[in-house]
């Protein structure tokens, strides 16, 4: 019978992470391979035994109890869980969860490393084609529709729901997270004039109202009032001409 625990230990000492170990063992052992959760448990046990310093009796290697396994199960299913979330799921005090993670399981709470969003060659080629098509459209409409378009960097907002932190074993490599860049949903406030000089206030997403600060909303309100008055005056003058 294959000693999978020894294989996991060897691969972990080579610096491989849990997902990489699971995929490598799965490709070789097929259905005989341990589940991903079991592999994470073995890795956690190894990390704890390596980092425990048996200088005092109370710090000697201890076996995991039911609560320890429940905490590891939650982290396996939801790696970005906070102490508060784990405590709510398990019905345990937050201080107890934190103590188990740091003192017994030897986990640490880290910020994920940001890396650029990596594009494939096909994605790069498709984006160039789309950019060329968009440029032709903008050039063709430059003298009409886009004449009175007013926008800027400060009118862009975005909502972000990704996780920035994660609990990991003490000696593990810090996981990465892709820089969202243009992949994240954005909201834009736009002001423009139609041919009749009527002011349009376009909000592409209702959420944008919540994202605007009070000062910005006051500026927009005053700007709309001024532009509306100018439009009404222009209409009145046009009728008299």
From TrEMBL:
InterPro entries: RNaseH_sf, Transposase-MT_Hybrid. This is Uncharacterized protein. It comes from Tritrichomonas foetus. The lineage of its organism: Eukaryota, Metamonada, Parabasalia, Tritrichomonadida, Tritrichomonadidae. It comes from the Eukaryota. GO terms for molecular function: nucleic acid binding.
